[in-house]
Amino acid sequence: MNLLLVEDQAMVRGALEALLNLEDDIQVVACASNGLVAKAYLAEHAGTIDVIVTDIQMPELDGIGLCLLVKQQYPDIPVVMLTTFARAGYLQRALDAGAVGFLLKDAPAERLAMALRDVAAGRKVIDSELALSALGSRQDPLTDKERQALKLAQQGLNTAAIGKKMCLSQGTVRNYLSEAISKLQANNRIDAARIAAEKGWI
Amino acid sequence: MNLLLVEDQAMVRGALEALLNLEDDIQVVACASNGLVAKAYLAEHAGTIDVIVTDIQMPELDGIGLCLLVKQQYPDIPVVMLTTFARAGYLQRALDAGAVGFLLKDAPAERLAMALRDVAAGRKVIDSELALSALGSRQDPLTDKERQALKLAQQGLNTAAIGKKMCLSQGTVRNYLSEAISKLQANNRIDAARIAAEKGWI
DNA sequence: CGGCACTTGTGACAAGTGTCATATCAATCG
DNA sequence: CGATTGATATGACACTTGTCACAAGTGCCG
Question: Of A110, A157, B32, B154, which is most buried, counting CB atoms within 10 Å of its CB?
Answer without folding.
Answer: B32
